[in-house]
Amino acid sequence: MIIAITSLGETPDSGFSEKFGRAPYFVIYDTSSSSFIALKNSAVELDSGAGPQAVRQLSVRGVNLVLTGHLGGNAAAALEAAGIKAVTGFSSSKTVNEVLNDFRNKSG
User: Fold this and answer.
1) How do the domains of the chain map onto residue ranges?
2) CA distance 17 to 6
3) Which run of H or E residues covers position 102?
4) Which helix (H) or strand (E) holds 88?
5) What SS3 state is found at 103?
6) How far is Cα of residue 3 from the mean position of the Cα atoms in its chain?
7) How buried is residue 106: exposed, middle or buried, by Cβ count under 10 Å (0-12/13-18/19+)?
8) 31 contacts 3 by C-beta, under 8 angstroms
9) 33 φ, ψ to 5°?
10) What is the DSSP pairing of strand 2-7 with strand 25-30?
């Protein structure tokens, strides 16, 4: 599974971003290789449509799941259309790694 976590920076120790479409980065974790890569969100500066554009970036990378704080309606619809599951409600007081660990602990 490939998981994208909204982030303020490029590493798993970076602060978590609650915003999906306006997150500066996505830290992408591949569960099969236990590896992380950073993806700069090119949609962050768009006047409108940031959520759907961010979804396109993640879809091309084969992302299956997004961990974020909250989603706008257009982003949620775009994720659903792309077949990418989203889990929301995570807090910005955590790091990317902490959010990933919280998700793993909750999902068993």
Assistant:
1) 28-40+53-79
2) 5
3) helix 96-107
4) none
5) helix
6) 7
7) exposed
8) yes
9) -115, -5
10) antiparallel
Q: Is-contact 53 103, C-beta < 8 A? A: no
The single residue listed with the structure tokens 């077949």 is: 83
Q: How confident is the prediction along the chain (108 residues), in pLDDT tens digits per residue? A: 999 999 999 999 999 999 999 999 999 999 999 999 999 999 888 888 899 999 999 999 999 999 999 999 999 999 999 999 999 999 889 999 999 999 999 876
Element (H, E) at 35: strand 35-40
Which of 32, 38, 34 lies closest to 11, judged by CA?
Answer: 38
CB neighbours (10 Å) of residue 35? Answer: 9
Q: How many whole angstroms separate alpha carbon 7 and alpha carbon 18?
A: 8
Tokens of 16: 């978590």
Q: What is the DSSP string of 41-82?
A: -TTTT-SS-HHHHHHHHHHHTT--EEE-SB--HHHHHHHHHH
Q: How far apart (Å, rounded) are the C-alpha atoms in residues 44 and 53?
A: 9
